[in-house]
Design brief:
Number of helices: 4
Strand content: 25-35%
Order of helices and strands: EHHEEEEEHHEEE
Oligomer: single chain
Structural class: alpha+beta
Helix content: 10-25%
Number of strands: 9
Radius of gyration: 16 Å
Shape: globular
Low-confidence stretches: none
Length: 206
DNA sequence: GAGTAGATCCTCT
DNA sequence: GAGGATCTACTCA
């Protein structure tokens, strides 16, 4: 039905043990959702790694295990979605094997398919840089909500795919993460990866 | 253009 | 009962 010639990423892509490496590999991949038969997709241009128990910025810091973050302890390859500030839905990809709560936060996309639908969902009139800029907007544009949390990324309604496109190493930039000032020293870790010069990357352009 | 404050609701202690 | 992996709009320079 659609024109995307892309393959879903296999479970072993997510289940690798180096969450930082997985994060970098996700750059340039497609995030695809299908709601009520409408496909929307975008190319990932910004991510952040959350290294579970040893990362103060992570919900699972110190091995915390609650009903909400339980999903992070699952095998890699499922979605972890939660609501932040009562307004924004944040979409994460769980990585690593079971009982190791690593995750990658998808921060920004470059819209690819279903742009009209994304505009409708976000209440915008025309395409601009802010459509899928920032994790809150990404979820909004793609129709991702908390009920998607725990869903396998092998499903047809929500998955990540590789269409062969790749950014060069030079285009990938690392920096500290955003919005995690409360995490002390861990807030300074260079766990954020983005595409240099891409207008959809959140934060200040360089 | 840059900086600051407010919105808003679910989850954990 | 408090705080949060954010965004937007408005103020001031």
């Amino acid at each position: 039905m659609n024109n995307i010639e892309a393959k879903k990423l296999p479970p072993d892509f997510y289940q690798r043990k180096n969450v930082v490496q997985v994060s970098k590999d996700l750059l340039g991949k497609l995030l695809v959702t299908k709601n009520e038969g409408i496909v929307t997709s975008g190319r990932i241009v910004e991510v952040e790694a959350y290294a579970g128990a040893v990362d103060k910025a992570s919900h699972a810091y110190g091995g915390r295990r609650t009903k909400r973050n339980e999903i992070m302890y699952a095998d890699g390859g499922v979605a972890y979605v939660y609501l932040c500030y009562g307004i924004h839905h944040l979409f994460n990809v769980v990585t690593h094997l079971a009982n190791t709560p690593h995750a990658v936060l998808i921060r920004s996309l470059e819209p690819v398919e279903g742009i009209d639908e994304m505009l409708r969902r976000t209440g915008k009139k025309k395409l601009d840089n802010t459509l899928t800029k920032g994790p809150g907007n990404v979820s909004k544009a793609l129709g991702i909500f908390t009920f998607q949390s725990g869903r396998s990324l092998q499903s047809d309604e929500l998955f990540l795919a590789d269409d062969g496109f790749r950014f060069t190493k030079k285009q990938i930039q690392a920096s500290p993460r955003i919005g995690v000032d409360y995490a002390g020293e861990d807030a300074l870790l260079p766990y954020r990866f983005y595409i240099k010069g891409n207008p959809y990357v959140s934060g200040k352009p360089r």
